[in-house]
From TrEMBL:
The name this protein goes by in its record: Nucleobase ascorbate transporter
Top-level taxonomy: Eukaryota, Viridiplantae, Streptophyta, Embryophyta, Tracheophyta
NCBIfam families registered for this protein in UniProt: NCS2_1
Main location: membrane
Keywords per UniProt: Membrane, Transmembrane, Transmembrane helix
Protein topology in the membrane: Multi-pass membrane protein
Subcellular location: Membrane
Membrane-crossing segments per the record: 40-59, 71-89, 95-114, 135-156, 176-201, 221-241, 284-306, 362-384, 390-410, 422-443, 463-483
Length: 528
């Protein structure tokens, strides 16, 4: 006879406005020593993107190791400023604001412009192309600043439902798959152990070995990086890579980054340190496209950070406020000259989930580390010289957590509806397929598939349609707003009724607790 199943065991898991199981939410804080260590861990995680972007862009500008180290220091400094500003006056979510892969295409477009071919000295070419990027970034920042502070982005957020938000949030993480295992596999003998050790420390050992304090799951990144970095150093010292190809040595050895020799001991980055910015209209338009894509991807990361910080869904006015501060962050990137705009660091959102610590204080501590190590260049360069395959191992787990936040939004939707499954399936599929087509076209032909008479328009199309989250977001939002919109079940199938109370700031009392501005500023800058 079959065993009897209790009725309550067949009931679906209850829907949760706030993610349970988080040890510290946005407003709660671990002890100061623990917050400092966790902040340092967030700093380590954001270093990967901070190093990768200048490593790609600076050589195309004519710069060497010294220029690359300077740009990394500047990018770190601006990231620290932007993270503090966003956590204090923006969305107030526990997010790190760092460099963005989205800006690599426009940065390369500027760096390879024919107008810089007249500069034969590499240093001189680097300086002038950097000034061109600065001017483009500063003008492009006006777009997100206006969209955010005028409340226009609030309108977009208010028409989002859990159904139309899930695909872009999912693809903010999943769309970065090319930066995960492929980066790890550049030196698989240190990248793969890094991934395995990170998974063991963060997921398996805490269940096998019960401790009074959650040490392994909370500090798994620091422990795994230290172990694998030491292992890579031993391989380097013992000559394991002495006779290997140059690319293998660059990826595997711990002494090949060139950052330590190129970095200064003490230097404070300052505005216009490369000289007066220059403005070219075509460069500005391409940068504006990147700023818009960055805003879309950051919105997905904001939604995910709210889940992992165990707070309610972020009201549209708060995300719009954060968009304005993100625009100011791009303006600061242009003022200081970082060769990249600003966005929410996806890997740090994933780290919130791994540690189960969504404390705002921890993120602010990480910003202090960014500022500190950006000024003390040599010390910061030591940490920034972590082999990139180890960073790839971190990305595999952090981007996966980010993707899971998008899947978590589906709890609000009716997955037994064919309308729901169509919108989900098509938006996710096109979000992966369209960027793959654009990227593949560039690889095979050296240029994008859009061949108009305007080079900057071609690049704008490439920037927009190589972003999986942006493509998925456009498709999902369009379908959700137009498909069977008058059907009686559409609102509930999309989960709109769950987010209705968060459309306006004052409709849910918890919004005041989580998102109000400090120092009584909400009185002068109210959210609506």
């Amino acid at each position: 006879m079959a065993p009897q199943v209790k009725a309550d065991e067949l009931v679906p898991h209850p829907v949760k406005d706030q993610l349970p199981g988080v040890d510290y939410c946005v407003n709660s804080n671990p002890s100061w020593p623990e917050a400092i260590i966790l902040g340092f861990q967030h700093y380590i995680v954001m270093l990967g993107t901070t190093v990768i972007i200048p490593t790609i862009v600076v050589p195309q500008m004519g710069g060497g190791n010294e220029e690359k180290a300077q740009v990394i220091q500047t990018l770190l400094f601006v990231a620290g400023l932007n993270t503090l500003l966003q956590s204090l006056f923006g969305t107030r979510l526990p997010v790190v604001i760092g460099g963005s892969f989205t800006f690599i295409i426009p940065a390369t477009f500027v760096a390879l412009s024919s107008r810089y071919n007249t500069y034969l000295d590499p240093r001189e070419r680097f300086i002038h192309s950097m000034r061109g990027m600065q001017g483009a970034l500063m003008i492009a920042s006006i777009l997100p600043i206006l969209i955010g502070f005028l409340g226009l982005w609030r309108i977009v957020i208010r028409v989002l439902s859990p159904l139309s938000a899930a695909p872009p949030v999912l693809l903010v993480g999943l769309g970065l798959y090319t930066h995960g295992f492929p980066l790890l596999a550049e030196c698989v003998e240190i990248g793969l152990p890094g991934l395995i050790i990170l998974i063991l420390l963060s997921q398996y050992i805490p269940h096998m070995w019960k401790l009074k304090r959650p040490i392994f799951e909370r500090f798994a990144v620091l422990l795994s990086v230290a172990i694998v970095w030491a292992y890579a150093a031993i391989l380097t010292v013992t000559g394991a890579y002495n006779n290997r190809p140059p690319q293998t040595q660059f990826s595997c050895r711990v002494d090949r980054s060139g950052l330590i020799s190129g970095a200064s001991w003490i230097k404070v980055p300052y505005p216009w340190q490369w000289g007066a910015p220059k403005v070219d209209a075509g460069d500005v338009f391409v940068m504006m496209a990147a700023a818009l894509v960055s805003l879309v991807e950051s919105t997905g990361a904001f939604i995910a950070a709210a889940r992992y910080g165990s707070v309610t869904h972020t009201p549209g006015s708060v995300i719009s406020r954060g968009a304005g501060w993100l625009g100011l962050g791009i303006l600061l990137s242009g003022l200081w000259g970082t060769a990249s705009g600003s966005t929410v660091s996806v890997e740090n959102v994933g780290l919130l989930a791994m540690t189960r610590v969504g404390s705002r204080r921890v993120i602010q501590m990480s910003a202090i580390f960014m500022l500190f190590f950006s000024v003390l260049g040599k010390f910061g360069a030591v940490l920034a010289s972590i082999p990139l395959p180890i960073v790839g191992a971190l990305y595999c787990v952090m981007f996966a957590f980010m993707s899971s936040a998008g899947l978590g939004l589906l709890q609000f939707c009716n997955l037994n509806s064919f309308r729901t499954t169509f919108i989900l399936g098509l938006s996710i599929y096109l979000g992966l397929s369209v960027p793959q087509y654009f990227n593949g076209y560039v690889i095979t032909t050296g240029d994008g598939p859009v061949r108009s008479g305007s080079a900057w328009f071609n690049k704008i199309m490439q920037v927009i349609f190589t972003s999986p989250a942006t493509v998925a977001g456009i498709v999902a939002l369009f379908l959700d707003l137009t498909l069977a919109r008058k059907h009686v079940n559409t609102k509930k199938d999309s989960g709109r009724h769950w987010w209705a109370k968060f459309k306006h700031f004052d409709k849910d009392p918890r919004s005041e607790e989580f998102y109000s501005l400090p120092y009584g500023l909400s009185k002068y800058f109210p959210s609506v």
